[in-house]
Amino acid sequence: MKMALIVLGAVAALLVVIVVIGYSLPVKHRAQVAATIAASPDRLYALITDVAAFPTWRTGVRSVEIQPSSDGKRRWREVSKNGTIPYVVESENPPMGLVVRIDSRSLPFGGTWTYEVQPDVDARSRLQITEDGEIYNPIFRFVSRFFIGYEGTLRQYGSDVERKLGSPVSASAVRR
Description:
With 176 residues, the protein is of the alpha+beta class. It has a single domain, classed as Alpha-D-Glucose-1,6-Bisphosphate, Chain A, domain 4 (2-Layer Sandwich). The protein is 35% helix and 40% strand. The protein contains 5 helices and 8 strands; from the N terminus they run αβααββββββααβ. α1 (2-24) packs across α4.
C-alpha cells in the first residue's frame, strides 16, 4: 500500500511539473519547412488546393467534408486521427500562395498555415510551409514542444507531397 502511494505521488508530482512547464511555454509558435519538389508550381498548387482528394494522399486524413460558404471563402472539415478539424481558406494567390486557418475556437489548438510556391529550375518548385500555431492546453504545449516538435505535422505534410509528386531535391526545417 505504501509503495502504491509513493508511485501515485510521483505520478502526480510529474503531472504538476508537466503542467507548470506547459504554462511557462508560449501559447504561440512558428515553424517552417521548405522543400524543392520535382513538379511545376501549377501541379504542386493543384495538389495542395484539391481538398476533396486529401484522403488519397495525406497520411491520417480519413475523409474530407466540403462545407458551405457564406462569405465566399472555401471551407471544409478533415476527419483524421486527430478528430474532426474545420478549416477555411483565408487567402489564395494561385499558383503562388495559400493561407489556411483552423475555423474553430473550441479546439485546444489553432493557427494558420501559409503555403508559398515558387518556381525553381528544371520545372521544379520550392514549397515553403509556415505554421503560425497556437496551443491553448498546457499539457499539449509540453508534448508538442518536447516530444512531437512544432514541425511534426509540417514534416509529415511535406513527406506526403513528396511521395505524391516525386522525390524532393532538398528539404529543410527551421524552428523559430
